[in-house]
Amino acid sequence: MTVARGLWWSFVAVALVLAWPALNGQFLSDDLAIMHWLLRWDAAGAFWPSIFAKFGAGLDVPSHYYRPLALVTYGLDQRLFGWSPLPWHLTGYAIHVANALLVAAVARALGGDALRATTAAALFLFFPLAPEVSIWFSGRYDALAVTGMLIAVYAHLRADGFDRWRVLSLFGFVLGLSAKEAAMPTPGLLVLASLLRGPDGEMLVARAWRTTRECLPATVVFFAYLGLRLALFGSALQVYPDADPTAGMDAAELGRRIVALGSIPRFAFADAAFAGVLAVMATLIAALAAAFAAWRARSFAAAWLLPMAWTVLSLASLLPHLGAVYPHGEGGRFYYATAAWLALALAPAVALLRGRGQAVAAVLLVAVYAFAQTHVLAHWARAGTAMTALMTALAEAADGLGEDEFALAIVPDHMASVPFVRNAQGGVAMPPQQRTNLLPKLVPVLPVDLPTWPGRIAGGDVALIKQRDIAPRLDALFCFDARSNALVRAAQAPDWREAQAFTATTRAFAAAACDLR
After folding, report:
1. What's the DSSP call for residue 425?
2. Does the pLDDT at position 51 exceed 80?
3. Residue 234 φ/ψ region, left for φ over 0, alpha for ψ in the -120 to 50 degree band, beta for the rest
4. CA 186 to CA 179: how far, in whole Å?
5. Hey, is 202 helix, strand or coil?
6. What is the pLDDT of residue 261?
7. CA gap 393, 379 in Å, rounded
8. pLDDT attached to residue 373
9. Which residue among 264, 349, 459, 484 has its CA within the 20 to 30 Å range from the CA of 285?
10. DSSP labels for 204-271?
11. Radius of gyration of the chain (CA)
């Protein structure tokens, strides 16, 4: 076994050990929304027809999401594993490992040796913000989009004319587009690859003409995809309701969006500044070292400039779609594609040393990323454990309520940078996560939604939820304390008839008893 191969399998083993507590956690947040799509389609007797129908429609959400490929994998997970979280998480992690192998393949296609390819793959595997994709099964959209992008880039680097590699590149591009909109920058990646790699002495006009020929098929696919989005959503480029990519950006707006992008790692490492700063410093030092090593080896354009250009393009392509700062640190998935190109740009740094020193440098650089990722993984593991405790506590609390009684349970939107009960308030209280439907007695509610409940109770929502005639009422109030993984009951239920007092009382209780704000 070569040194590079031995290092690779060691890196994978360490990555699995570090990720295991998070992989073994519960479904979280958007996971439960996806689960209930599948449940609804299955109950209607149209499980697979409903999934495959999404190849010609958007997802059942207000945003303009065209993401059918991940739904196919979710359907396979459900049919193979039921609703057990671990196999679903392992499927996503396997895709993450496969993407790391594709990063290695691209590194070899760029002229890197086995050790440099292994270093690039490991840096991607341990990218500090990757757990939002590698652990959270709702992040599989991004994982599969990057799979398609890496296949497209790798095959493009190998292609010569319209051969089987060009066909594979187009297949990868289509695969990525069917997974998530994040694959849309792929033609730009291919153009950069053609422009920055070519025969020595090639004239600029000849290079431009060759680039046009090589990238024209992908460009045709791209515009066909935009036409499909226009037909489905009335907009070819807009993905999120609060961000229109076709709107002009002045300097102030551009700065605001750069700040929004930068807020993700800043908040994700707010409670572990040393790990975050160490990863940033290692990245900057490795980038400079890689640039010098590539220049010294006379492969500057292909080995460093090209992957760094891919990195910049990947980050720039995010800016039109960012609408707000992410105060929790959620959003690591937006960096997932960037992580692949950045890893390729950093890997040549190991070539500054000779002999065994290269392997030592690779291990040290990867170890810094692994150390930083461990902090993020700990949050995901903690959230997975807390979700199991929350579901148990909700069932016990509902069992303690009478048939006519009605209660609210205030639950966290996020835990650190990890989405927790957001978009899953009903899912955590319903089958298959619960033996029976708890909602007629106990409704989970996010802190931000508390002001809506006096009006909902007065408007007859209790009778609507219980599906029988019953007077408006609120008999108990709970909150979930993620510090102790316990559901805390208020001494008395607040009076819902006074809306302002209700909101103030419930928020004060949630903050004091459960540190929820």
Report:
1. T
2. yes
3. left
4. 13
5. coil
6. 87
7. 21
8. 98
9. 264
10. HHHHHHHHHHHHHHHHHHHHHHHHHHHHHHS-SS--STT--TTS---HHHHHHHHHHHHHHHHHHTTT
11. 25
Give the strands of the sheet with 476-481, arranged side by side: 442-445, 407-410, 476-481, 486-489
| Residue whose entry in the numeric block shows the structure tokens 């005639």 | 469
**pLDDT by residue (tens digit) across 58-67?**
887 778 899 9
Q: 3-class DSSP state for residue 376?
A: helix
Please report, for residues 24, 390, 411, 450, the alpha-carbon distance to residue 420 in angstroms, rounded to integers and kept in the order given.
15, 11, 9, 17
CB contact at 8 A, 473 and 490: no
Alpha carbons 104 and 117: distance in angstroms, whole number:
4
Contact between 372 and 338 (Cβ < 8 Å)? no
Q: Contact, 132 vs 377, CB < 8 A?
A: no
* Unique residue bearing structure tokens 């903050």: 511
Quick check: pTM over 0.90?
Answer: yes
For 108-150, the pLDDT digits (tens) are 999 999 999 999 999 999 999 999 999 999 999 999 999 999 9
**DSSP character at residue 490:** P
Q: Is the pLDDT of residue 248 over 90?
A: no
Q: 496 in helix, strand or coil?
A: coil
In whole angstroms, what is the distance from residue 125 CA to residue 134 CA?
Answer: 9
Q: Check if the beta carbon of residue 345 is closer than 8 Å to that of residue 307.
A: yes
Which class for 430: exposed (0-12), middle (13-18), buried (19 or more C-beta within 10 A)?
middle
* 319 or 28, higher pLDDT: 28
